[in-house]
């Protein structure tokens, strides 16, 4: 069977191109060797199930270990009705997972499930089972989120906790290690079950060790997958440059890395004679995955998590649309929720940022679509064809028309309104112009100038527009220098500057500026 890049379900080394995560697996096994109980809490499609499978395979190669793997996927609500249903059901699930790999244990567990009816009997069975096995029995529980709306699972964790404490004092036998995997950690599971209970932070899993293994893919790890692919396809791409570009857009989010590679392999390189990958292929794949007509369960989940949490929606909107800056304070409930869903991560300066550039673009498109239908519906009705020429997109004309639009419709608005809405107005104005023909991408740079750069890609053209607030000539010179440096990143000699001037005697003007070796077209509104 020919290998492929996987974007559904668990990754299998013999069938899929995979990143070499052996260092991560070794780090997790070190926790298991110490007999730790812990939770792998990561966002959806972040490689949790694949990690558990790789862990289990590695441990089963060591004679002293026996792994039991279960998942609550597809169990249904009735499974958690009461302990009389849950306890025997748990043993049946474990037995089924061992039916083909270890039939002897399967034959042992299946009849035992008919003799266990409550937590006390389950606890006694676990003690006897571990004692008889004379091995380090490790329990993996995947999809713990499926148990998030009931109390029975928390009672089960409480039982495991008590046995763990007794084990460490020599008064019981129990699992050597227990690993839970899901989007939620146990604290947020409990908060979900009893949102108004002051005791919700008294977790039955407070024995858990910290899990700090980074499951995202670093560029050098992405290279290992590309090397495997290149050998199989007999090509010689610039692997290091491509891996860096993949990381640039995904920040190492596992599913996003695999999906971009799958697009290139099956939809981009496959349609041309030259099969070698280039960094331009990453750009094309980025356009494909951020196209608003493309859907996936991950992006559906991303939109749902925003729509179902108004405070999170507002916070993310202010970051992604207005370039606002907030400290990444994980104890803040809204920021913690954004982190849990993989939307927010800390930047180097300790500020909140959107996890990756693909999420930024998808979130931006989602929010702007709603705004265009409500607050700025009138922006969708103007002559778009004038913004296109034989050479491509006419950014100067777009900026001049926006200037005229602002002068006509918003000249009487107060400065406070424009300072809050100015960037949003331009993005809303810009969106229907490039929709379906190109894409805009924002790079927020929070400083005393509160700037936000917009990168527009149209065909083989790239344009950089910087938005800033007028604070006088000194800051203006500094802004020109920053824009010049930013243009260097893209090897561009032309740039654009949209300046919001809130002075009472402001002048709606434009200026062609030569700065260093750049030509910058500036418009004041």
Please, could you describe this protein's structure?
This protein has 525 residues and is of the alpha/beta class. The chain folds into three domains: 180 residues, 3-Layer(aba) Sandwich (Rossmann fold), CATH 3.40.50; 72 residues; 146 residues, no CATH class. It is built from 18 helices and 14 strands. Strands 9-10-11-12-14-13 form a six-stranded mixed sheet, sandwiched between helices. Strand 9 and strand 10 form a beta hairpin. Helix 3 runs antiparallel to helix 4, helix 10 packs across helix 11 and helix 13 crosses helix 14. It is elongated, with a radius of gyration of 28 Å. The N and C termini lie far apart (61 Å).
Key structural traits:
18 helices, elongated, four-stranded parallel β-sheet, alpha/beta, 14 strands
Residue fraction in strands:
15-25%
Radius of gyration: 28 Å
Q: Would you give the CATH topology of the largest domain?
A: Rossmann fold
The overall number of domains is 3
Average pLDDT metric: 87
What is the 3D shape?
elongated
Label the CATH architecture of the largest domain: 3-Layer(aba) Sandwich
Largest β sheet strand count, sense and barrel closure? 6 strands, mixed
Residue ranges: pLDDT <50 for 5 or more in a row?
Answer: 197-201, 446-450
Overall SS class: alpha/beta
Through-space gap between termini: 61 Å
